[in-house]
Amino acid sequence: MNVTLKLYATLKDYLPPDAQDHATQLDTSPGTTPNQLIDRYNVPRPMAHLVVLNGVYLHPSERDKPVLKEGDTLAIWPPVAGG
Fold first, then answer.
1. Which of 3, 20, 61, 62 sits at a 20 to 30 Å CA gap from 31?
2. Can you give the pTM of this predicted structure?
């Protein structure tokens, strides 16, 4: 199944070198969970602060459920600080 993974801010460094616009297209098996994709790209889970599936926030308790489907987009941001 084909999904898009988008990593923003400092997380973009975890994308493969051929990624464009903070995103990569990837082929994954049905039943893959968001946390499995996070782990596949070696993103430290505490750094995957804001996880959004097709524009909808995924609470940390939902990230181990096989919610990904063909054509989905999973976008991830790190914790943000500022002032």
1. 20
2. 0.92
